[in-house]
Amino acid sequence: MKSKRTMFGAVLTAVVSALAPGATAVADDPSPLPTQAYATISAGKQINVGPAAQPVHVSWGFWDGGAQVPTPTDETLVIDARDLAGIANVSADDPRCEAEGRVFTCVNEESTQSRSVDFTLRAAPGATLGDTGTIKYAVTAEHGTGATATAKVVVGVPNLVVGKVPDTTHAAVGSRIDIPLRLRNTGDLATDRRIQLRWASEGGLLFDHKFSNCTYDEDFDPEPAGRTTVTCVVTAPVAVGATVELSSPLTAKVGKRVLTNVVDYSASLLEPGQEPATGGVGRHQGTGPALRLVPASGAEGAFEKGAEGRFTVAADNSADFAATVEVDQDRWALDFRAVNHGPASVYVVDEKPVVVVDVVLPKGMVGSRNIYEEGEDRPYGECLLRVSATETAPFEAGHRRYVCPVPFDLTPGKSQLFILRVKLTEDYDGAKGTATVRPGPAGVPLHDPDASNDSVTFSFDAQTTPTAPTTPTTPTTTAPSGGTLPATGTTHTALVVTAGAGALLLGTVVLVGLQRRRSH
Predict the structure, then answer these.
(1) Distances (CA, A) of 233 to 187, 196, 245, 390
(2) Contact 475, 371 (CB under 8 A)
(3) pLDDT in tens, 134-176
(4) Strand 182-185's sheet: what is its strand order?
(5) Which residues form the signal peptide (predicted)?
(6) What are phi and psi of 300, to 5 degrees?
(7) Which end of the chain is more exposed for a tag (fewer CB within 10 A), N or C?
């Protein structure tokens, strides 16, 4: 006799099966799980070769869809370059690889060995520009399927370099600016692939969505369109030695938050079938005519040495930064803030802070601890030991002078908090200390319109003797008037520009690369 529970369960299963659309089909045709791992190969689809050795990287891997099949063993990669006779010569220095003519067999005998091989290709003597051949890859393994892939090898190398774009200064807020671009092919072969043009902007420029073959990816952190990536793909070839320019320049509006906007731009050749790079979370496809490359007119101007460049747009705008401090007599702690009263926003450039807080503790008092948390979602910033006017070192207790760099972007109304614990070294008579906001090592002028709030003085009650708490406590903080306390913080290396040497140069005007981070 069946139990009531079993009978009820059977009835319920039948009802659910009858009511669930497609339930029977799923039960009758379950997805089969693999019985061995599937092999995959990752390699470029086109390789251009010249007289110099061209490095080539090929890798492989296995997946089982979660079936937990046996681990592949005795993995073998075969590089077959027989079709490249008279076109390109192959060289592989990897000790796992053995050559037999133009065929290289590379074997992994241990599961811990790398699933990749690096080799080089070089144009064969007497090869004609434009000659093509095919290189073949094959992977086999015990307990794994095989996989194959091919790459087209072309004799000749196109080489695109970008023209220098001049910096824009004194741009009026609300005005529009043109962003031109020139390219030159300094290689020995015309481009035969799609060309990707990319502009990565940080600082508040508002790009017009005017070209149908361009995407405009706008990030909304820390503010709408604070960061924008424009990606355009053009197909027309660029002949050897030719100089071309955009059929019409990009245009952008100088937003009300722009202080100094940094734009990194580049040109690259896309692999066959490769999707263009994109960024940001708010993507817009451009409208209007397609952007094209046309023969350059007028004076050619200067060019970069490679396919990347940078320019800045400095607006006639300002950022009123103020220093504030709260004294916690009970815990002998100081809560410092750098507050941005606007109207412009500031963006960290190349991991270099735009603003720092310079702290001078009162005579008879030294720092004992910096309350600091790493990570983007941490509210407390790091303070560094001031060594000189141009150098800092990691925090060290027992000193009176510290520098606290603002690690992230700050929009108007936002602030960065720093917490220092202090202790006495001698009789304290109520002497005052100072906290002052100053331009940071990014070298971006703030054009601060109100110097009266740049510095603030503070002191402790001279009648109270400090006692160090045995257990660290988290201080209560309050946001500046009209703003909210952002989550700010970063990794140690992002705050200390030369962490290995323990140094952070102050006031250095050097722009070499753009790091993109989220801020809050």
Answers:
(1) 20, 5, 14, 44
(2) yes
(3) 999 999 999 999 999 999 999 999 999 999 999 999 999 999 9
(4) 160-162, 182-185, 243-246, 293-295
(5) 1-27
(6) -70, -35
(7) N
What are the structure tokens assigned to 489, written together?
């913080």
Q: Which two tokens stand for residue 509?
A: 């005007």
Residue 517 CA to residue 47 CA, distance in Å, equals 33
3 state SS of 508? coil
Residue 224 to residue 214: CA distance in whole angstroms: 19
Q: If you search the block for the tokens 């080089």, which residue do you land on? A: 120
Q: Cα(507)–Cα(346) distance, rounded to whole angstroms?
A: 16
Q: What is the pLDDT of residues 203-228, one digit of tens each?
A: 999 999 999 999 999 987 777 778 99
Mean pLDDT of the chain: 84
SS3 content of the chain, % helix, strand, coil (to 5): 5, 45, 50
Banded model confidence at residue 376, pLDDT cuts 50, 70, 90: low
Average pLDDT, integer, range 194-199: 97
Closest CA to 370 of 393, 346, 387: 393
The secondary structure element, H or E, covering residue 136 is strand 132-142
* Contact indicator for 310, 169 with CB cutoff of 8 Å: no
Which residue, chain included where needed, has tokens 């290189």?
135
Give the pLDDT score at 508: 25
Mean pLDDT of 39-50: 96
Q: What percent of the chain has pLDDT over 90?
A: 69
Does the pTM surpass 0.85? The reply is no
Write out the DSSP string of 148-184.
Answer: EEEEEEEES---EEEBPPPPEEEEPTT-EEEE--EEE
Contact 141, 74 (CB under 8 A): yes
β-bridge pairing 46-49 and 144-155:
parallel
Return d(Cα 357, Cα 434) in angstroms, integer: 10
Query: What pLDDT does residue 281 have?
Result: 59
Q: Taking the C-alpha atoms of 483, 486, 492 and 497 in order, what is their torsion angle to the nearest 10 degrees?
A: -40
> Can you tell me the distance from the alpha carbon of 77 to that of 96, in angstroms, rounded to the nearest whole number?
10
